[in-house]
Target: OSTM1 protein
Amino acid sequence: NSSESHNCAKSILTSDRLQIVVTLSEFFNETWEAANCANCLKNNSEGLSNSTEEFLDLFNKSLTCFEHNLQGQGIDLSPNNYTEVCKNCNETYTKLNDLYNHLQRLNRQGGESAHSAHLCIDVEDAMNITRKLWSRTFNCSLPCSDTVPVIAVSSFILFLPIVFYLSSFLHSKQKKRILILPKRIQSNANLVNIQEKYS
Model:
């Protein structure tokens, strides 16, 4: 009965002392919000967004690549030679990492889901797992793309003092000591000595 809907909901949801249905409902809603689950979905929540599907596909490819290149090697805590994993899975991991960074930038601008600036917990956890495997377990690293600009700027800054002192040396007028010879009349004492010689 629609006229009694409020009383009906009240009697069903809050009839017990613990209010278990209300508590569970609030818990699931808070968990959904805290995990930013809506950010993995399309605006109308009909399914996963295209970018999330693309990310999860690349994530699965990365894990498959790791697993395929580890066959025949025992995974234990001792440092192993994982050069095959680093070499063969570098392209897949780089694509996944670039896509994740791109999704982060998109989400800050309000991306596909138009929700908060954080990616959903599934995407973040998947990237964290992959990065831990890549860097800690396999001890792989990506070459830094900013190496050339950093070296160029560092070299420029190191040579600035040399350029400064060299230019100040070349463009400053060097004060040379010039000896000025006195233009005085010879002293009388010399004249007296000369006269005494001749006399």
In short: The radius of gyration is 41 Å. The mean pLDDT is 79.
